[in-house]
Specification:
The protein is an alpha/beta fold. It is built from six helices and eight strands, in the order E-H-E-E-H-E-E-E-H-E-H-E-H-H. The protein is globular. The model has no long low-confidence stretch (mean pLDDT 93). The chain binds zinc ion (ZN). The site of zinc ion (ZN) has 5 residues, from loops.
Length: 207
């Protein structure tokens, strides 16, 4: 089981590393990473992603799963996006945890991103199934963002982490950090646990 807590904890101190170009997975290049977003009270996305990932990791381990993480701390920088999908080539699946930063405060809800096309037909099929089960599990406690259709699933060709993944992979944008209600949930320990529980449910359902 592979978990990628999106972005890095050390954004501010490493601007040049974050901006340096790496392969984007479709022939072009992309910046090593982006800084991610933040709530209106400046709670960084990287911290939220990290907190939910730690919680999910513990729950998966308690359930007997072997867990690999894309990064071991929330301080420095890396790996870059070209390696965010490849750090666990023998995992059953990869879940990348993010939160979105739409500027309008009224925008609310989670959405799931899956690569189209996938790195192979088999990976694409299994990734689509993973996107479906994640969307369904998240729909219980959280609101689907209707901007991405009724299942809140976005199919994109341009995300290096997903393009380079050799295992079924999705990005879960857990919610909108500029939305006051969701920001409050994201900043609280109990809210982070609720996100981790929903992600765990999606993984279990996929199996
Ligand atoms: Zn992000």
């Amino acid at each position: 089981m592979a978990i990628d807590p999106g972005h890095n904890g050390g954004n501010a101190s490493h601007p040049s590393e974050i901006a340096s170009p790496v392969p984007g997975g479709r022939g072009g290049t992309k910046a090593c990473n982006t800084t991610g977003t933040a709530t209106s009270t400046d709670y960084p996305e990287a911290d939220f992603n990290w907190a939910v990932a730690q919680q999910l990791k513990q729950e998966l381990k308690d359930a007997g799963a072997k867990v690999v993480m894309s990064r071991d701390d929330n301080d420095g920088v890396g790996p870059c996006v070209d390696e965010r999908g490849t750090f666990a080539d023998d995992a059953d699946l990869m879940v990348s945890i993010h939160a979105n930063g739409t500027e309008t405060a009224s925008t609310k809800g989670f959405h799931v991103i899956v690569a189209k096309p996938g790195s192979s037909d088999a990976v694409e099929d299994d990734s689509n199934r993973l996107a479906d089960s994640m969307s369904e599990a998240m729909s219980g406690p959280f609101t689907p963002n209707s901007a991405y259709g009724k299942d809140a699933i976005s199919r994109r060709p341009d995300l290096a982490g997903l393009n380079n993944a050799s295992v079924p992979a999705v990005i879960v944008e857990c919610g909108e950090m500029r939305n006051a209600d969701e920001a409050k949930t994201m900043e609280s320990k109990s809210g982070q646990k609720k996100y981790a529980n929903a992600l765990l449910q999606g993984i279990v359902d996929w199996y």
